[in-house]
Amino acid sequence: MRSSAEPMIAVRNLDKYYGRFHVLRSCTLDVADGEVVVICGPSGSGKSTLIKCMNALETFDGGEIVIDGVSVGDPACNLPKLRSKVGMVFQQFELFPHLDVEQNIMLAQRRVLGRSLKEARDRSRQLLERVGLAAHALKYPSALSGGQQQRVAIARGLAMDPKVMLFDEPTSSLDPEMIGEVLDVMIQLARDGMTMVCVTHEMGFARHVASSVVFMDEGRILEQADPATFFDHTANERARRFLDNVLHPSGL
């Protein structure tokens, strides 16, 4: 049982290998209840691997992750129960194409939480209203835009009533016009007090919404700072070069 003084997510000295490749190197990170943490860094820096370890979608080789008092790497950890606490939104939408929107959101509620058909449907419709898709409940994913599908994926994660939401580059596969509608939903979640960890290159979101920004490179966490410090006063040379490339591409 987590005390109120303990972080919602605690990562301690995490190590992960793919064969001989050391993808995560002694990563340590705390995420407080209600905090929004953005993880950024160049491709291949270990960002997505770190966030997937938090949800036990990737195993790890050393260290510890504790979420809401539950040790993720413990062999006795109840993974379905853990994942009901930790919602996950991926780069790809991962919706079932043969199910309509409402059915996609209802499925895990019925199978994992044991909700009745009415309870699951009522919760699904409530969340579709929340993400601005109430009129699309009976459509199939193929009839929706990319931004709409990603909002359905967020609603599906929220349907489990999680304590934490993890986002793994949720806008990277979207057209520029669709990115804003997904970020608007994420911004509202942050305002509502949801604990969030977001791997993203959306630096405007990081600057204006994040409680803190984590910068990774070559499997290491090189800096964690509040947005103002990270964007305007970072002392980390590698982070400065990254920001220059992201905020001023091609030297513009």
UniProtKB/TrEMBL annotation:
Q: Its principal location?
A: membrane
Residues in ABC transporter domain copies: 9-243
InterPro entries assigned: AAA+_ATPase (IPR003593), ABC_ATPase_HisP-typ (IPR030679), ABC_transporter-like_ATP-bd (IPR003439), ABC_transporter-like_CS (IPR017871), MetN_ABC_transporter-like (IPR050086), P-loop_NTPase (IPR027417)
Q: Which family does it belong to?
A: Belongs to the ABC transporter superfamily.
Which EC class is this protein assigned?
Answer: hydrolase
| Species name | Labrys monachus
In alphabetical order, the GO MF annotations are: ATP binding; hydrolase activity
Localization (cell): Cell membrane
Q: Which PROSITE patterns match?
A: ABC_TRANSPORTER_1, ABC_TRANSPORTER_2
Task: Name the membrane topology term.
Answer: Peripheral membrane protein
EC code(s) of this entry: 3.6.3.-
Domain of life where this protein originates: Bacteria
* PANTHER family found in the cross-reference section: AMINO ACID IMPORT ATP-BINDING PROTEIN, GLUTAMATE_ASPARTATE IMPORT ATP-BINDING PROTEIN GLTL
- The protein, known as: Glutamate/aspartate transport system ATP-binding protein
SMART domains the UniProt entry points to: AAA
Keywords, alphabetical? Amino-acid transport, ATP-binding, Cell membrane, Hydrolase, Membrane, Nucleotide-binding, Transport
Which CDD domains does this entry report, sorted A to Z? ABC_HisP_GlnQ (cd03262)
